[in-house]
Amino acid sequence: MNGVLALVGGGLMGVALALALVAGNRRHPVLVDALAALDERSYRPNDTDSEERARRRILLPLLRRLPVDVPSADLELLGLGRDRFLVTAAGSAASLAAAGPVLAAVLTLLGTGVGVVVPVGVTLVGLLVGWTGHAHRVRDRADDARDQLRSALVAYLQQVSLLRRGGAGVSTALTVPGRLLAESWPMRRLRDELELAERAGDMPWDGLRRFGERIDIDELTDLSAIAATAGQDGAAVVGTLLARAESLRDELLADEHTEANRASGQMSTPGALQVFLIAAWVLFPAGTALLTTV
């Protein structure tokens, strides 16, 4: 046992020394990352807390080597940087992994004589569940946010078509709804992306196209294509925009009906199981008595 403790202590000291060396090593910035950080067209959350940046500087070289099952489009939609997601996932995994040392301390106090296999297994399971569970929650949040943004696009398309019918230009019709309907976060995101495109000297439909490609929403790329056609060729797009809004609304309603039917099917399963258990509880005494009399 003393040998095992010595090996564990030596390993922990080695890990601590490696982390200290990584934290103290100053590296030159990568040119691609530096240029991307100066590009105001790309949205990145601001990290202003120096202590948080220091912790991330120590952890990120290790966390970036771990497998992550979250698409970049989901993180972009939620406004989460990948580094921030990794740190949060590591915190979730560490909180669940703490159950292993706690269990080991309780077993030691009780004197059960159980070895270190059970606490180590609990720790490993906690790490796995915490890491994958956080990724699953982020994907669910991204799916909900994507549905909300698609729902907001219906109103946005209608407003754009009304402004075009009233004689507004394509650029004005694309930017005004985001500023007037900024109470919801989807409209604020659209407004911010259009403002970024304006400051970068690009046309509004180019900003919508890039935004749709980053967050994996085809409706935004379709809208950018329609707007680009109207802005370059002067085509009348009022009917096209209204038809696209109607088709998008029908798609959302169909998705909601499918989700409602799936939820209804899931709700019927516990009810059927409850009926089966009640029937078994009622029929078991009679079946037992019948079998014993034969």
From TrEMBL:
The chain crosses the membrane at residues 6-24, 85-107, 113-131, 271-291. The keyword Ribonucleoprotein does not apply. Coiled coil: none annotated. Keywords: Membrane, Transmembrane, Transmembrane helix. PANTHER family: INTEGRAL MEMBRANE PROTEIN-RELATED, PILUS ASSEMBLY PROTEIN. This is Type II secretion system (T2SS), protein F. It comes from Pseudonocardia petroleophila. The lineage of its organism: Bacteria, Bacillati, Actinomycetota, Actinomycetes, Pseudonocardiales.
